[in-house]
Every structure is written in structure tokens, then in C-alpha cells.
Amino acid sequence: MAVLKALEKDFEHLVSEGRLGHGYIIFGEEERLCFNLAQKFATYLETGAWKSPEMTLLDIYMIDGVQAGIDEMRTVAQFLWQKPFKSTRKTCIISSADALTLPAQHALLKIAEEPPEDAFVLLTAKDSEALIAPLASRFQKLFVSDGKGEVIEDKDSFFEAVHGLLQGQTIKERKDYIKTLFEDDAFNFHSFIGILFEVLQKDVQKNERLLRTLLKRWHYINQFNTNKKLQLEAAFLEAGY
Predict the structure, then answer these.
(1) Where do the structural domains in the chain lie, given as residue ranges?
(2) Structure pTM?
(3) CATH superfamily of 2-144
(4) According to the model, what pLDDT value does residue 90 have?
(5) Distance between CA atoms of 169 and 34, rounded to whole angstroms?
(6) For 97, how many CA atoms within 13 A lie in the half-sphere containing its CB?
(7) Which pLDDT belongs to residue 154?
(8) Distances from the Cα of 20 to the Cαs of 24, 50, 75, 120, 183, in angstroms?
(9) What percent of the chain is modeled with pLDDT above 90?
(10) What are the start-end ranges of the H helices in the chain?
């Protein structure tokens, strides 16, 4: 998928330029996809490749947030304070981090406040805001969507449509633009949303709120028989965009 390949390239640049942070929250509706990406990040740090390793990785520790408590956070701290064997970092992946108990989150916060020099923590979650604010603020956030795995043809026209929507200066302008899109019989909503996610993902810090509201509305659309046009409008209104 093009978006994931782009994320891999961005990660490579951060590593090569020495700008990799100490931790990321990888979030999105498909947490399996988030977890797989976290594993790939950790594998790349240790092997320098994106393919599956031929041997057991030595500098990765993975736990499930559903079952993790304070004791597990102590184990995480002990692991991260060790020097890496082969990788440039000791990487801990906590899946379903939004399921961590409040005491466990506070224990993890202590680690995130003063991380060891070689530590790298990756949290996966469906919603980055499900974590306590002080903890979430310590991590950079990375939204991931599978885009239904579809191959989007004529991407240039969809990029043009997305940029046209994002350039709207008022609520009325955006509503009128969305109305125009849906009046076109050839308009492919799923492809449009895939490109919209891809464009917003280029600046997660700036677009995090809109990404989050779009994700929520996307969930409604996939789960219920709801009006796509109204859900798209609502996402922008809720995000205050």
C-alpha cells in the first residue's frame, strides 16, 4: 500500500538523520495494521531491512496492554535501560495501549518523561486520545489507515478534489464543495477518502484532530447505513477545520 510505503521511507529518513523520537503512538481503526507497522519499525532498526528477520530479534520486547499492569511496566523499564545488542535502540511495543489501566499508564508516563537514551517505545491503539493526556503528549502520533486495500486509479483527479476541499475557507464553502463532489455520478467516495487520509497524514501534528474525526465517521459509515455526505461534513465541523 502506497501510504505504508511512504511511512517506511519517512522512518528511514528519521533514522538516517538522527531525528527519531523516543516514542510514537500508532493509531487507527485497524489496530492489527498498527501493530504490524510497529513490528516493522522495530525490525528495521535491528536488521536494516523491512522483510521478516531470519533469526530471533534481540532488542524488541512486546506486551499486550489488555493484560499489562504496573509489574509489566517495571519489566519494560528494566528492558529499556539495558544497552541494545544489535539494534540502535531497545524497542518496546505495547499493543492495545488504550486498554492499559490507569496505574499502568502513570507508570509508563514516568518512563516517557525521562526515557533512557537508547529507548524506543511504540504504542498501538484505536484512539490516541483514549490514553491519559500527559502520557499521550509525550509521544508523537502516527495515524494509519488501510484504505480498504483498493487500488486507486486516476489518483491525480482525487488529489485535485482533496486539495479543493482543504482549501475551503468557510463552512459554507466546504459544504458547497462536498455537495458538488457527491453530485458527480462518477465520484468514488472510498477512493476520495483514501487520498484524503494520505494527504492529511503528511502533517499528522497539524491534522491530528481532523484525522481522528474522519476516522470516527469512517467507522460509522462502515458499520451502519448512514449518509456519507453528511458524515464527511460532520467530520470537518467537529474538527473545527
Answers:
(1) 2-144, 151-239
(2) 0.67
(3) P-loop containing nucleotide triphosphate hydrolases (3.40.50.300)
(4) 94
(5) 33
(6) 33
(7) 60
(8) 10, 17, 23, 9, 44
(9) 32
(10) 2-16, 31-47, 70-80, 102-113, 133-136, 155-166, 171-183, 189-201, 204-223, 228-239
